[in-house]
Amino acid sequence: MKKAGKFLGILFLVILSVAYVGTGLSRISVDVDILRLLPTKLKQVEGLSLFLKHFALPEELIVTVDASDSNKANAAVLAISKALKCHPELLKDAVSEAPWESNPASLSEFLSFTLLNQPVEKLRAVMMNLTPEQSEKTLQETLETLNSSVSPLEVAMLSYDPFRIFSSFVEKSFSGLAGSSEFSSQDGTFRVIYVQAVGAFENYKQTALWINKIKAICAEATATTDVRLGFTGEPAFVAEISTGMENDMKTSAPVTLGLISLIFWICYGRFLPLLGLLLMLQLIFVFTLGTAGLVLNELTVAGVGFASVMIGLSVDYGYFVYQRSLTHTGSTRSLQWDCIQSIIWTAGTTAAAFFALNFSSLPGLSQLGNMVGIGVCIGAVIMLGIFAPLVKKIRKTSCTSYSSRLDPIISSDLFSKIGFWVTLSLVGVFIGTLLVKGLPSSDFSSSTFRPRNSESHQALSQLYTRLQDSRACLSLIVSGKNEEEIWRRLKSAEDALETAKSNGYVTRILSPLALWPTSATQSSNLDELLPLTLQKNRLKKAITDNGFTEEAFALTSSVLDQVAEWKNSSLPIWPSDPASAWILRRMARHEAPNYLAFGVVEPVAGYESTLVDSIQAPGVHLVSWTVLGEELRQTLPKEILNVSAALIAGILLILLIALRSIRSVLVFAVTTTLVLVCLAGAMSLFDMKWGFFNLAAVLLLLGTGTDYSILLLLAFKRCGNAGQAQKQCAAVIFLCCSSSIAGFATLGWASNLGLATLGQTCAIGLLIDGMISLFLLPHACRYFLEKRNAPAMHFCK
Amino acid sequence: MLRPIQAIIRFSQIVILLMGIAVSLRAADNGLDLSPLEKALKAQKNIRSISAEFIQTRALKTLKSPIAIKGRFWFEAPNKFRWELGVPAKSIIIGSHHGLTIIQPSKKKAEKIDLTHSAFAKNAPQFLRMMEMASSFTVENFQKEMQIVSLKNLGPNYRLEVLPKNPEAAKSLSALFLDFDLSSGHWIAFELVTKEGSSMRTEFQNVQMNGDLEPTIFEYDLTGYRIDEESR
To answer: Where in chain A is the domain with CATH 1.20.1640.10?
Structure first.
């Protein structure tokens, strides 16, 4: 009866746990947007997020074709376009030339729209060219210009616009569209095809699958030609970053578990406890993710990556429990009690440190803090509550007393001596490097967020190099609640930019203002233009009477027809034909509630930040990844320093309660400072740079690495003897440190540069931390604490 | 502003290019016999300067009848030139390897384009190459830019038909003709025919080779002019 009750209780607990984890995991939606890790209060982050959300064209893949001559490139483009258009189930369209190039008449709706959005006074001035009194003079002037202009474009334009309706404003309005072609390099050897997916992608896996299919079609279409293909654009980046991170996680987690197993096996040579430990780690992982799903609002891919960090931390408690169980002779409860003090204090300081990251304005750090904090608490509970009884049970079934195989080596005086001198030498080298080379430099550019070998980035770089390099340009993003508000904001932004241009901060402004519609302007302009639609015959006669053919009137006629068609349309009018959609896709969003306009500003080098500061206004964002990098360079170190200070203060406070000795806490503070100084020296030695992920690594170190010194100080508090404390902790610190290093080192080979630098920095930092805690800290305890601590040898025994 | 400027540059490219054609063709595309050209080229080696008058006739599809205008042209090796349209000049382009100045005297307006700007240099590589070609006169350089379509005998003169290899330049052109005199090697005319059906023919007269040109030809006093600086 008692057994059945126990069984039912366990079953209930298992069902409850499965339900808990299942509910939590089902709520997790992973976001790959790296900007979600950065503080949204930063204007650059806010603006770039708007850009990525609305103008990054997540359904448009850019295919680049690079050939040795223009004929080959052209043939390849034709073959690819033809092959792609046979797959309507995959794509909406594959565009290899501007829609109006094969059909110039398709621009008439867009020209009508542009005409309708001109300032009323300007339109009235243009209308003067068409009055019965003025029209003949206008046409004669046009003839004169057609004869003497040195600009073929002006000749081409005026010959189809003899009344000069569009010529007065088209240059300004179209300047953004002109310049280098977005489809071909000047020599024609580099061509671009824009492939538009049939619909929005549900997730990155679907995106990656779609891209692979497109790649296969393109490869097949060009199999017999000697061309190089590239694939870039937002879907390519999303698929590459996401699958890369997923693969990093998929490979690093098993490799970490494998290395942990290997280290455990080398140390203890026991299979059952190892199996139990691995099971516990997986339990901790799923419980943490489940809890995160229930507690946290959102999770980024990097956030899930942080979850693997807490495996590395939780395994420390497992090692500690197992190591203690080897020499423990009492009951399970007494083993748990024996371990609880050390685990509570180390887990407490770690969790407190990580939860304190919520005070940071960086959502990425908050996620890191929450994930690791939750994981550490769950890890401590599971290791004490489940793993401790499990190892006790395993010990009961085995009659042999096991100890760590490495104990004789690690606990030997020779090991301590060699360790001491090696550590001291390394500390000397690192501090020396720091003195000679100085602090490591910083890199907050967007390159740290992307994969190490990014095919899509290479294709994009080639696109910039071969077509038009706009990487130095700033994106002007204006948001508002309706068209009128956008127009007002665009106007004030353009005024400010013109002032900046006159001050020498700006080279070029491509503003969408000249194209942006408002109901008021369109209403007034329609009133001006509608009477003209009734005078087509007069205008046509004037043209033919002044030496022009009827063909010269075709554009004016179609624009007037379009204006007449819009007579009863609701305002503001937006064009709907394919040519307009193509032009406006990078320039405007006008579906409620998202009203946004996009422009480009080319700053004078070195004045980017000044320019950004001078354009500050609600709803106006002047952004670029370079300026974001600069903003992060200025904001992040300060932020991390503040958070680190708070974190250290928290740890010191907790330690003060635990150790009840100011001297011990001071020794701890000096040790931690030495670790950080040595880490900076090592980074400087290996030419590593500080970045967003590196700085996060410092916080990880503070939360993780400090455990080693805390364990040693707690052991010293129990024993009152530094040598004994070192011997007691040597195996645990060695195990914890080596498994954590193994875990982080696997991240060091991650395809994502950010994760790789995080892994490398943490691995180096933990190595330094472990060595200093194990080999130098006992000496510090001996010199500064030993005499003042009352020996408690009975506890040590 | 980019498109008109590029168009002007393309126009200048054609001028420079034609000088290159006149002195550089030594080999044939498509198996054509270009020996008449080679003969003409021999007469034109070591060109140092050109001075010529011209009449430009524009037969636009949207005009009932063609319109014509006179003009003058000067060139000094390696890459200085002045192109004047209208007598008196209504439009002037003065250029060198470093930049262009486009002047509209009637409007007291000028536009300067810096060709040394890296961004521009990237956007106008053909122009720069053409400049270099005019001084190096190699068939290889020419054939990188142009495809020779035909060479016809028109009595004492020859007509060469070419097409730019640059797809942007070729996009709107259906043909580009160059007429030259076989005995003197002098070029006589060039004509651009657009796909849309318009054409622009420039016929040269009083062509003088290797005469001494006043340095002031390649200068212009812009005092009182509104100058737009364009560095791209």
So the answer is: 238-448+627-796
Conformational region of residue A438, where left means phi above 0, alpha means psi within -120 to 50, and beta covers everything else: left
Interface with chain A: mutation pick from B12, B60, B123, B200, highest number of A CBs within 10 Å: B60
Q: How many CB pairs under 8 A join A and B?
A: 108
Q: How close, in Å, is residue A95 to chain B by CA atoms?
A: 17
Side chain identity at A520, as an amino acid letter? A
Query: Which residues fall within 8 angstroms of residue A357, CB to CB, at 6 or more apart?
Result: A365, A366, A368, A369, A370, A373, A643, A647, A699
pLDDT tens track for A406-464: 777 877 888 889 999 999 999 999 999 999 998 888 887 767 667 777 888 888 888 88
CA atoms B150, B155, B156, B157: torsion sign: negative
Structure confidence at residue B139 (pLDDT): 55
Cross-chain residue pair B6–A152, CB shorter than 8 Å: no
Could you tell me where in chain A the CATH 3.30.70.1430 domains are found?
Answer: 58-98+181-232
Name the CATH superfamily housing domain A58-98+181-232. Multidrug efflux transporter AcrB pore domain (3.30.70.1430)
A174 in contact with chain B, both atoms CB, cutoff 8 A: yes
As a whole number, the mean pLDDT across chain A is: 83
Of B61, B83, B90, the CB nearest to A551: B61
Cross-chain Cβ contact B61/A155 below 8 Å: no
Among 2.50.20.10, 3.40.50.80, 3.40.50.150, 3.30.70.360, name the CATH number for the domain at B2-230: 2.50.20.10
Query: Which of A152, A171, A184 is facing B168, going by the closest CB pair?
Result: A184
CB contact under 8 A, B231 and A507: yes
Domain at A238-448+627-796, CATH class: mainly alpha
**Cβ-defined contact of A175 to B3 (cutoff 8 Å):** yes
Q: What is the CATH number of domain A474-518+572-622?
A: 3.30.70
pLDDT digits (tens, 9 = 90+) for A664-680: 888 888 998 899 999 99
Nearest CB partner across the interface for B168, out of A186, A508, A552:
A186
Domains of chain B, residue spans:
2-230
* H or E, element range at A298: none
ipTM of the complex: 0.81
